[in-house]
Every structure is written in structure tokens, then in C-alpha cells.
Amino acid sequence: MLLEIINGWWRVGLIYLGGVLSGSLLTSVVDPRVYLVGASGGVYALIAAHVPTLILNFRSMNSWLEWGIK
Prior knowledge:
mainly alpha, 81% helix, transmembrane
């Protein structure tokens, strides 16, 4: 949700779709006999995009967390 608030829904959607497509294409190249169903590539892409967001916006999120706890 934080990734979507900062970047917008369409950018998060592009990251997700890019992860799904690249994951399925890579699996097809590595082992063409495997049929792939699932969204794990998109989920891993969102996690990989969220880590730099956490690092770059840590100070502003820290005040967010303190405000939410109180």
C-alpha cells in the first residue's frame, strides 16, 4: 500500500505486470516443458520495488509509525 501511495496505482501495476511477464518468460527459456501458472514473479517484483522505497523514505515513514502508535 505504501508503494502505491508514493508512486501511484499505474506504476505499481506496471511493476507487477513486468514481473509477471519477465518471470514467465525466464521460466520458458530455462525449461520450456514447464507450464507456468501463478503470480509469484509479480509478487517478487513488488517486494523488490518496495525495499528501495523503504530505504529512501525511512525518515518520513518513521514519523508516520510514531504517529500511528500514539
